[in-house]
Structure formats: C-alpha cells, structure tokens
C-alpha cells in the first residue's frame, strides 16, 4: 500500500495543537493594515480553532 501524500498548501496553513485541535490564522493580516483601525488589526492577531465539521483538513494532513 502506498503512503498517503500530505497536501502541502494545507500543511502550511493549519497546525495541530498539543491537545489535538486544529488551528489557523485569521485572513487579511499580511499587508494594508495601516488603513484599518487598531481594533480590527488587534482582532486579526489571534489564531482560531478550526470547526469540527471541516474533517477534510484532517485527511489532507495525515502525518501531523
């Protein structure tokens, strides 16, 4: 049986915590942040848990 390949784009965007939860960054925080107010910019700094309904992500990163 062949080894399953890791989807590299997904592996770069999601990671698994020590307790086994999937985490991701919020979108839109790389550039053009000077035009937004401070409240919006601070809110984008926090990482989010991935919802359990997105089980496809787990299939794409099998060895994490």
Automatic annotation (TrEMBL):
- GO CC terms for this protein? large ribosomal subunit
Q: Which Pfam families match?
A: Ribosomal_L35p
The answer to keyword DNA repair applying to this record is no
Chain spans, region Disordered = 1-48
Q: Where is the composition biased (Basic and acidic residues)?
A: 27-41
> What is one process in the GO biological process aspect for this record?
translation
Q: Where is the composition biased (Basic residues)?
A: 1-11
Q: Could you tell me one molecular function GO term of this UniProt entry?
A: structural constituent of ribosome
Q: Which UniProt keywords apply?
A: Ribonucleoprotein, Ribosomal protein
Family classification = Belongs to the bacterial ribosomal protein bL35 family.
**Protein name stated in the entry:** Large ribosomal subunit protein bL35
This protein's species is Candidatus Doudnabacteria bacterium CG10_big_fil_rev_8_21_14_0_10_41_10
- Gene responsible for this protein: rpmI
